[in-house]
């Protein structure tokens, strides 16, 4: 009298695929959250005067999985105040040029990462580094935020994955 399995190879495959899907979702959610937080930090800074709104509007992120952009956030977030010819003060979100420039820059960087999960946070205007070099904070605080929070996020993710049985 021998033992006979009550499952099929397909059952094992399905169980493993389900677990991989849960792990994938957890990784994507963590990285998306980190990207959003980094962008929120950068957009909220008030260390420079963004005259056109382009620099602040060019700040955003993309999240890649195996070279494909699966999440991202670029939007008009600037607050640009100008004076009209009539002498009235007018506040706008600036032009959409910065949004498109930031998104295009992030997409060009994404081409260099064909494998794995990758989070790219950018300030897409070509003068962002020059603003930083003058002691103004465009993305430095976001980078520090990521360096501080990513290790803890990875540890939590590993613990959550280990609990998945």
Keywords:
single chain; 165 residues; alpha+beta; two-stranded antiparallel sheet; 5 helices; 51% helix
Describe this structure in words.
- The chain is of the alpha+beta class.
- It has one domain (9-163).
- The chain contains five helices and five strands.
- α1 runs antiparallel to α5.
- The longest helix is centred in the first third of the chain and has 36 residues, at 9-44.
- The chain is elongated.
Shape: elongated
What is the count of distinct domains? 1
Q: Can you list the strand order of the major beta sheet?
A: 2-1-5
| Helical content class | 40-55%
Lay out the secondary structure.
Elements: H1 9-44, H2 54-57, E1 59-65, E2 68-74, E3 80-83, E4 89-92, H3 97-110, E5 117-123, H4 128-133, H5 140-163
Helix pairs in contact: 1-5
Please provide a brief summary of the model.
The protein is of the alpha+beta class and 165 residues long. It has helices at residues 9-44, 54-57, 97-110, 128-133, 140-163; strands at 59-65, 68-74, 80-83, 89-92, 117-123.
